[in-house]
Design goal:
Layout lengths: L1 E2 L3 H9 L7 E6 L3 E6 L5 H10 L1 H15 L6 H7 L11
Parallel strand pairs: 1-2
Antiparallel strand pairs: 2-3
């Protein structure tokens, strides 16, 4: 899991996502831990990936459950909610 220190780093991590690198977990100080899953257009590919990866299957199931319970935030909402204070070094 990577520590994100700025909104630029967050966008860089999202931009680097692709079919082989489709899950990104990161920690934002002051906000918490997040997991972003890139959704492919071809659902048959997703189904085969989920079938072959139990962790991905669990992550997607948990994500769907949270979504149905209204516990979600769009990427735009997340980025708008960030402030410079969220990225201050906690190691001091």
């Amino acid at each position: 899991m990577q520590k994100i220190s700025s909104s630029t780093e967050l966008m860089d991590a999202i931009v680097k996502m692709n079919k082989e690198n489709s899950v990104c977990s990161f920690f934002i100080p002051g906000k918490g831990t997040f997991t972003v899953v890139l959704q492919e257009e071809d659902t048959s590919l997703i189904a085969s990936d989920v079938k072959s990866d139990p962790e991905l299957k669990q992550m997607i199931s948990e994500s769907r459950l949270a979504y149905t319970r209204g516990k979600f935030q769009t990427t735009a909402e997340l980025i708008k909610s960030l402030s410079p204070e969220d990225f201050k070094d906690e190691q001091k």
